[in-house]
Specification:
mainly alpha, 77% helix
């Protein structure tokens, strides 16, 4: 129980609001866009995490990593299909807002785990997410059909486990290391789009996805190289 005692209430509450906002935006984006398109926009989050780690966490990011972040953002733009209506849609804006919220949430995890345990970070985030989400949903609550409960329970279990592992990753490694690994979510989105809805990604999406993943791998490589060089100096 002592591990669940929070030390920074303000950040825990802030994470609750961020979690509700990013989840609402992402659910709305998925309802308006294909899963692959929504994930393509959402995958700008790891790039934002790497960039925000500099002003918010005082992490060092070399110019090579900044270049990789820029190239990755170009890949995101390619995936977005900038065709006039493709960029300025409510679904696209919601996906981008979700990515920004996720990046800020990830940064607060890194800050919180300096003083609070991973268990406390996950527990209170889910508590405030439940309270805030419940209050917002109570005004227009609709009873949940029994057929949906297995999916809801599955979401709860996998979501809690995922949140715990993400929190541990943020605690054990700096954002420039963890963020590139999250690009695999784009591949999973494309896979599920194909398996569940028989929707295959186009050449433009595959090209953009390749640029995003390659940029992430390069950022990871540069961080490992810098860490190894620093250890050799000591």
């Amino acid at each position: 129980w002592s591990d669940l005692r929070p030390k920074r209430w303000g950040l825990h509450i802030l994470r609750g609001f961020l979690s509700v906002a990013l989840l609402w935006c992402f659910v709305y984006a998925v309802s308006q866009l294909s899963l692959a398109n929504a994930y393509s926009i959402f995958m700008s989050a790891p790039l934002l995490i790497t960039a925000l780690s500099v002003p918010m966490l005082r992490e060092h990011v070399g110019w090579q990593q900044w270049l990789a972040v820029f190239v990755g953002l170009v890949g995101v733009i390619i995936v977005l299909k900038p065709s006039g209506a493709g960029l300025v849609t409510l679904g696209g804006i919601a996906a981008l807002a979700s990515a920004i919220g996720y990046a800020l949430n990830a940064i607060t995890i890194r800050i919180l785990t300096r003083t609070d345990t991973s268990a406390a970070t996950v527990f209170w985030s889910l508590c405030f997410l439940t309270i805030i989400g419940g209050i917002l949903a109570s005004a227009r609550w609709v009873p949940v059909p029994w057929d949906y409960w297995p999916m809801i329970v599955g979401l709860g279990i996998t979501g809690a486990l995922g949140q715990y592992f993400i929190t541990e990753a943020r605690r054990l490694a700096p954002p420039p290391v963890v963020a590139p690994l999250e690009y695999t979510g784009l591949a999973w989105g494309m896979l599920f789009d194909w398996l569940l809805w028989a929707t295959a990604p186009g050449l433009r999406m595959l090209t953009g996805a390749f640029i995003i993943v390659a940029s992430g791998i390069y950022v990871l490589h540069r961080e490992r190289f810098a860490s190894a060089a620093l250890q050799q100096q000591h």
